[in-house]
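User: Fold this one for me? It's N-acetyltransferase.
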Amino acid sequence: MESRTKRLLLREWKDEDIEPLARMNDDPRVVRYLARLADRNAIEVWINAQREHFKKHGYGLWALERLDIAGSIGFCGLVNVPYQAHFTPAVEIAWRLHPDWWGRGYATEAAVAALAFGFQNLKLNQIVANAAGDNVASRRLMERIGMSHDPKGDFDHPFKAVDDPLRRQVLYRLLYQDWRQKLQK
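Assistant: Here's what I get for N-acetyltransferase.
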């Protein structure tokens, strides 16, 4: 399953995506607010989990590739939230790009395509996203794609240790009717 935008191909994972993902995973700027995969084996396991999510649910995190250059520049897509929280069960939009591609609108372009897929193809009523409160870049992207933050929805991430400064997460949501209304403007 693939999706195309003006500049990007959102595609399923290939074995040759392991190295670009490993380089991205090793960059401290990328993992500053995110979980770092421990090693190459963990990266392979993660990619296989993305493949399985696609097989099981018909959607997942796509590898991102520029249409004019072969090779993964990151990922974006939709996944089932894998933990219990006050807003679950839910489908979450997520993304991660290598810093070489930051600031060019690729994450926004991919996220807009992922939202459209979720609302049009999957008929979702809502899509959520979360980030550490200090992750200003991700929060700005969430707002650019039409998501809204309600501070009453913020939560402690159950996969983070109690003393982890990234444990407190801000929750953003986008309802289908709000997404549809923005399209009509």
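One thing worth pointing out: The beta strands are 3-4, 8-11, 61-66, 72-80, 91-97, 126-132, 148-149, 155-156, 168-175.
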